[in-house]
Amino acid sequence: MEDALMLSVSKDSPSEYVPEEIMKDLQWLHDEAEVRMLTDSVKWVNEIIVHLPESWLNDYEKTTGNTTTRHSTSFSCSTRFFRMGKSMLETRDFVRAAYYLQKVQNENSVYKFIYYWSRYLGCVRDQLEHDAESFDKKAHSSNPDPPILAKDLLSDMLNDKKDHSDLHDSFINYLLARVQILLGMTEAGYETLKNVVKEEPRLWPAWEEMVNVIPKYEFTNVSDLCFSTNSIPWIFTWFTSLYCKRFQLFREGITRAETLLKIFGDLPQLLSLIGACYNHALDHRESVKYFKQVNELDPYRLEHMHLYSDSLFCKGERVALTALTHSFFKSHKFAWETCCIVGNYYNMRQEHQQAIRFFQRAARLNPTVASIWVLIGHEFLELKNNAGACLSYRRATEVDPVDFRGWYSLGQMYDILKMTTYSLYYYQQAHKCSPQDSRILVALGVAYAHIGRSKDAQKCFATAFEYGDVEGNALWHLAKLFEKANQLAKAARVYEEYLTTYDGTRLEEYDENATHIIRFLAKYYCGTGDLAKATEYAQRCLQHEATCEEGRAVLREVNQKNSAILMDVEATPARMEPNCQSSPTAMNMSDTDMAVSDGEDVSFD
User: What is the pTM of this model?
Assistant: First the structure.
């Protein structure tokens, strides 16, 4: 899969990103989405255009001229019904909108799309209301019965496609895929979306929806599909960046987003995407840097700001988090992102009941975000409510089985409960979702060590260190494993690697580990006869109160061994001095004298 990503990078080149062509793609998507009332897509396009360089816009206007079209002044029966249905859709009266639009759905593809779009939005609202009603129930079914309205909608769309295939364009097929996904028919929805982007690669909402349903190892097929058709390079690059973020390939995702930044300039969408990748990769310093830039460009932009608050929380920046919380609570009080921000704020203040209240409010507003359920579980765990935490974590795995955080959190919870077999299973599930996450590998290694699978544990710890070891404890666990198995030479090598890696940068954070390491190394080298290294580590022991006495003991033992060696060295000339000859030869030297050659010191034995 990563080879396919690298191949897609090599097939991209700066010459493929032509500003004029990008502007044409954006204008087409804007016009088509606006007439079909795809408001999220219209907003996405407008947010890009408002931050584009002025030269792009001026050059495009010179090329195309004034393309503004006048609205129709017709008052025909179909136009009146369409206008009425559209106005009902704008006021979110979906049932009434569908009633009027049904009368004119066969006029053209736009009318038909808006008719089905109003019915689809009604189904989504019905499902959200159902989820909100069942939110407080302790039991949650992972396989609820499909909504009747959605099943009827899918049946009507499939039958209509047979009767009016000429009106079913790429937009209606895109909507068909969304209905299939709503009903849990993920594979069918994915196949439909693949056909949509093949037919119309400019249709960005289809790409965006495909990110959520594409299987992890299907990227190669999608990549081949795109490069074998008239794909839009910049759209595919954007899609790839989102794909990488979803499947925890953060380095590649950031690389692709940075490629787009060089073309478009500082777009808030791309800066937020990079900030989100850094947040998930636990590089909160970089995450805060990018989100701060977004906040300066667009102070009221809410998307991904809950991740900004998470990074501020992890860095302990109380003042910045407080300012962010007050800002968005004032401007977007009832948005789910704001509820997450407020929840993080109360979590920093150790007010866990209040934090749960706001995280649960966020889940009611948007129950499809797995990270919200994970946060709820964390707060329940803080309050020692293991049952509530377990239910929340399980809900996270149901909402998004590909997100490792729900599985990993379940593993941590069972670790706390000393149920190693259960924790191992959930860590294994998390590892499948994110095979290169060092935290999961370390947790797996600890679980394997607890059940006596030392070889597997060693592999996990070594691999975690190779992948970066975010928490800096893989080498520590590996060395302790060797020490416990009495493989002291291996333990010493790993401990020294630990000191080399973290000494001077992070050693103070792991002071307890460091004192154990230098104490172990001082005793180990003293026992093996490497007195120089033993002295070095013993002197370092003197710098720590906990190991000061042991350091002195090692130094005394080293001094005793050095004294013994010195006595042997001083005694050696007397044994070697001949009685009669001042210049001995081989003929008159004894066997004992022959055993020692020039420059050799018997004390080394």
Answer: 0.83
